[in-house]
Amino acid sequence: MTTKYTGKEFEGLKNQAEGGGTLAKVGLFVFFIFTRAIHPTIIDASKSVNEDTGKKYFEYGKMTVVLGETVVTIIVAQLMALAAGMPVWRSIWAPKPMKVFSIIGFIYALGDYLEMASMGALGGAAYQILLQSKLVVTALMMWGIKGTRQTSLQWNILFLVMLSMCVYMIGTSGDSSSGGGGIPIMGVFNVLLKVSVSCLCAVLSDKYMKDFKSEPIYVQLVQFKCAWFVTILALTFIDGQTWQRGFFTGWNGVTVGVLTSFTVKGWSTLYLLAILDSVLKNIGEAMAVLVIYIAQVVLPAFDEKFEVPTFLSVCVVMLSVTAYVSAKSVVEKAALYDQKQGK
Predict the structure, then answer these.
(1) What pTM was computed for the model?
(2) H helical segments located in 237-304
(3) Tell me: the pLDDT tens digits for 61-80?
(4) Strands (E), the chain
C-alpha cells in the first residue's frame, strides 16, 4: 500500500542553497565562470599565425608560462606563510603533508603539460567543450572504484553530452581556430588525457586536503608547487625549445596575461571550490563554453564569425551538461522516495 506524498520525504537531503548570502554566491559563481572562460581564451589569443600554412602556434615556449606561475605562487604563498608567523612557514616543510602533496603536484604538472599541448592544436571553445567529457570519465571512475551506478536517465544525458561535443567538433573542424585540416586528433587525445588526470587530481586533492585541513591553503599550495615546479622544469629541458631558443623568446604582453591567468586559476580553484558546491562548479564550467564562444566572436584578436549552427551546438553542449548535473538531485530524491515507499 502506498502512502500519500507529503513533501517531507526529502528532508534528509542536503539543501544546496544553504550557507552564505545569495548575492555573494552569485558573485562568486559569475567570477568562477569568467575565470574558466578567460583562461583558454587568453591562451588561444597568445598564439601566432604561420604565414605559410595559416595554422596557429605558440611563438613562446609552452612550458615557460607554467614554470613562471609555479615560481610566482611559491614566492607569494611563502610570503603569506611568513606573515602568519615563522611556525606556519616551518609547517610547509613537514615531511608527511609535503610527501603527499608533492605526489599530487607531480600529477597536476602533467595536467598542465597536456593542457598546453592540447591548446596548441585546439581553439579555446573546442578545448572547453571537450573538458566536459570529465562527466563521463568521472561516472566511469565512480562505477569502477566505488561501484556507484548511473541511472538510465543519467546515461542518456551523458550520451547526449558526448554526441553534442562530436557535433561541435565536426562542425568546426575546418575553421581557422583549429588551423583547419579536419579534427586535430592529437589535440583531442591530449584533452581526454588532461581530463583523466584532472579527475584523479580532484579526488586526491579532496581527500588529502581534508586530512590536512588544519593547514592554511597557502601552505598547501607551496607543498603542491614544489614538485610541480621540479616536474615542469624537467619538461622544459626535453621539449627542445625552451632553453635552446631562450626562456623569454616570443614573450609579449599577452604572454604575461597567460601567466597571470594560470596564477589566478590556480589560486581561485582551491579557494572557490571550497565555497561553491560541485553542482554550481559544473554548471559554471559549462556556461564558460558560451562565454568563450561569444568572446571569440566579439574580440578583434580572433577571426571567428558568428554562425547559427555553431552557436546552437555550443548551447546544446551547455544545456546537456546542465541537465546532467541537475538530474543528480532528481535521481537522489527518487531513490529516497522509493526507499521510503519500500518500508
Answers:
(1) 0.80
(2) 242-245, 253-272, 278-298
(3) 999 999 999 999 999 999 99
(4) 48-49, 56-57
